[in-house]
Amino acid sequence: MATAIKVNELPKTEVPAAQRPAPKMSARKVNLWYGQKQALFDVDLDVAKNSVVALIGPSGCGKSTFLRCLNRMNDTIDGCRTQGDIRLDDRDIYDRSVDVVQLRRQVGMVFQKPNPFPKSIYENVAYGPRIHGLAANKAEFDEIVETSLKGAGLWNEVADRLSQPGNSLSGGQQQRLCIARAIAVAPDVILMDEPCSALDPIATAKIEELIDELRQHFTICIVTHNMQQAARVSQKTAFFHLGKLIEFGDTDQIFTNPKQQMTQDYITGRFG
Amino acid sequence: MSMTESGPIKKHLVRSYDDDMEQITRLITEMGAIVEQQVAFATQALAEGDEHAARTVIDRDPQVDALEERLDQTAIRVLAIRQPMAIDLRIIAMALKISNDLERMGDYAVNIAKRVIRLQSQTRIRPIPTMVMMSEMCQEMVKDILDAYIARDPDKAMAVWKRDQEVDNAHNSVFRELLTYMLEDPRKITPCIDLIFIAKNLERIGDHATNIAEKIHYMIHGDEINRSRDDEK
Amino acid sequence: MTDLVSNGGRFAAITQRPPRPEAVVAAHTRRRYVRERRFKLIGMSAVIVAISLLAILLATVLSNGAGAFRQSYAVLDVRLDPAQIDPSGNRDPEVLADADYQAVLNDALVAAFPDMDDRQGRRALRAMLSNSSALQLRQMVLDDPALIGSTVPVRFLLDDERDQYLKGEVDPSIPEANRRLKDRDIALVDRLAEQGRIETGFNWTLFTNADSREPEQAGLRAALVGSFWMMLICFFLSVPVGVAAAVYLEEFAPKNRWIDLIEVNVNNLAAVPSIVFGLLGLAIFLNLFGVPRSASLAGGLTLALMTLPVIIVVTRAALRSIPPSIRAAALGIGASPLQVVFHHVLPLALPGILTGTIIGMARALGETAPLLMIGMVAFIANVPSGPLDPATALPVQVFLWSDSPERAFTERMAAAIIVLLGFLIAMNVIAVLLRKKFERTW
């Protein structure tokens, strides 16, 4: 695994209060506006290390928006304004001294639609390490590509055709290639934005199994519309509605005995 | 504080889902109604030595089993196609368990009925008022717990749960009384043992009623009951 | 249950609607078919009209211009008399250059037609050959003085009128007064042909010579070189600037009113008539910067000005067609915005940009109006040796020749159009091939 690579240190800022087991990522009072429209309201959420947090909620509830705050992908949207405190290992990621490119290396992302680059499988995985200068020579690149593909459970399927274009793979394989691409830069956190919504149930099951394995080494935050999936892969679940975090708790509790009426109505199909 | 108990449960977006849930509740209610009658007939048979009532109980037992089977099938089907969550999941899972309790209660009623029939051909002993009272208490508990289920009323269920202590006490006193009879007259040992078994069955019926009370509580609140009344049971 | 009833009620208005009579439905279907057929017919006739117009154009141009690629030559045995050319015999190049080659040529002509050795006859003989023939002899002798003293067969360009006659373009049945080529000249050419002294070959002159007053000597060289320089300047100016501007506007520019204003103006600029760019070029490059009039540089700059907005618009369209998922993927892995553009977006947009660029360049290659405005319409008899020399362009050459009365120029104009069309088709084919080669799916 490429975990031996030295991580560029993010600047340290003062921690407000002592928290017992420090979460990998924590959000406090996060507010977000798209132009005049407020999309997130005072969201507080902690992501524990080596755990999977699922974000659920109806479309337009702000769960994807919140996910994209965690690696500042919202910065690329015009007129998007974020307020509040989001920390990665107790460092404010919105601090002026934080380099957003370094942040996104530490907080990787997998998208809804598999989006491999129109390059070879090898290049897809090697691209991240290349732009971040994580490997010095061909042998190191080869090693990263192999370990990443193995990590994503794709190595056995593509080992003999690394030079073929990434788009030639099936949808599920493409998504695992995207996961391999994300872990190739040895991130701390992996954000997944509905990673299985374009996949068939078999490919979905493979990704879910992979998520469970990835959890041992990475911290994962996943947005999903599939509540069974959230229930299956996550340890904690957050329910968003209209930009507010309605309920956040253990996945077992959320799906068997939610505390909030709104959560109950949503997960039992009584919404609207 | 749980919010789920406040306000009525809304309708599902998918109407047939509501129909499915309704069917499960209806099956439990129907099964409960028959079991309640079975216990009532058994009580009557015991109190009045009514062999006809006892035979009715035995004859009707397959109905209970059939209902339980239907409920199992329905619940499995709903689990498979709806993948229920939260309250729905608890209702279905608890329906499966409650039906099991009800089926057991029905079996105990049949046991009582069988022993009542056997008692008719044996040495007559004096009716034991405590036992009749115990029987009526059980019948009452079964009726109330079903009302609580239909009303989805955890408080009412808790009231039934607390009454189990009285049944246990009655059972103890019946046992002591019968023990005295057996010591007095060895010829009465056989009928007394039958009566002891009947008392035991009644006590078990009460226990299953409390089980159902616990399940109603879990179904509504989603958490374990606060066992302030925990005893040697 | 009541819900189900009301449900039925909800759809009752739909399901219980009385069915339309069979005949009405059939009539409706028939009308629909008729309309579809009519539309297909209109579309097909439009295509047929367009194709036949194109065919007529091509046929006209080809039939008019094909002749210009052939040229008739007269082969004469020329005796290079040392007494006439180099009396002193020391082969002094200055003496050789000053010799009277016209006399040598006249002697050769008279030798072929001894009966024409009078004043009028000699004139008729001289008129038969292009007026560059004496110069051709001189050049030949200067190149190889060893030829002096021998008799060599030399190929001379036949005069354009006689060339046209040989190509069958002059009808001898027309009254003599109504044609430029008199009966005597025709007879002379016929005699030349009888002697086997007429040769026909590929008209290299068309590509090796610049423009000339004599049609048989006129060529496209100046126009080709001028067009080449202009395309080069236009390409290296408009493509980098255009692509850079498009990338900035599309990928980096903040969304504000100023950028909107620029975008609107760029789009408008792409639709501005080309002659306006000519005026702009005239005002800026010639008057303000003092670029030499009629130079390829001025033309190239003006064409670049004209092509720039087209390239910006095309490039932006190509960039916009790249799915945002690719940008998100690259950003998500920690690529900087610049890396996103140069590693992913631009390579993917390249086929689109290339196609747009080539089509823009093709348009610039065929552009005449702005070049007229900046004085590139001059008669250029010398091949330009650099972008600052006076030059002309292919379409302008077409324009110039179209003005000339000689039949041979009309033929050459058509030939120039064929050359121009050839280049345009080649550029479009390259555009298609590049698109095929670089196109990728995602």
What layout of secondary structure does this protein have?
The complex is a heterotrimer of chains A (272), B (233) and C (442).
Chain A: E1 25-34, E2 37-47, E3 52-56, H1 63-69, E4 80-88, E5 91-92, H2 100-106, E6 107-110, H3 121-131, H4 138-151, H5 155-158, H6 171-183, E7 189-193, H7 201-214, E8 219-223, H8 227-233, E9 236-241, E10 244-250, H9 251-256, H10 261-267
Parallel strand pairs in A: 3-8, 3-9, 6-7, 7-8
Antiparallel strand pairs in A: 1-2, 1-4, 4-5, 9-10
Helix pairs in contact in A: 3-4, 3-6, 4-6, 6-7
Chain B: H1 15-48, H2 51-82, H3 86-120, H4 129-151, H5 154-184, H6 189-221
Chain C: H1 2-15, H2 22-65, E1 70-79, H3 82-85, H4 93-98, H5 101-112, H6 119-128, H7 133-143, E2 151-157, H8 160-166, H9 183-194, E3 198-202, H10 205-208, H11 221-252, H12 257-270, H13 274-288, H14 296-320, H15 324-332, H16 337-365, H17 369-373, H18 394-402, H19 407-438
Antiparallel strand pairs in C: 1-2, 1-3
CATH fold label of the domain at 23-116 and 189-267 in chain A: Rossmann fold
Structural class of chain C: mainly alpha
Compute the number of structural domains of chain C. Answer: 3
The oligomeric status of these chains comes to heterotrimer
- Please state the second-level CATH architecture of the largest domain in chain C: Orthogonal Bundle
Uncertain stretches of 5 or more adjacent residues of chain C: none
Give the overall form of chain C: elongated
What summary fits the major beta sheet of chain A? 6 strands, mixed
* Largest interface by Cβ-Cβ < 8 Å: A-C, 29 and 22 residues
| Helical amount of chain A | 25-40%
Mean pLDDT of chain A: 87
Straight-line N-to-C gap of chain A: 46 Å
Tell me the number of strands of chain C: 3
CATH superfamily of the domain at 23-116 and 189-267 in chain A: P-loop containing nucleotide triphosphate hydrolases
Shape of chain A: globular
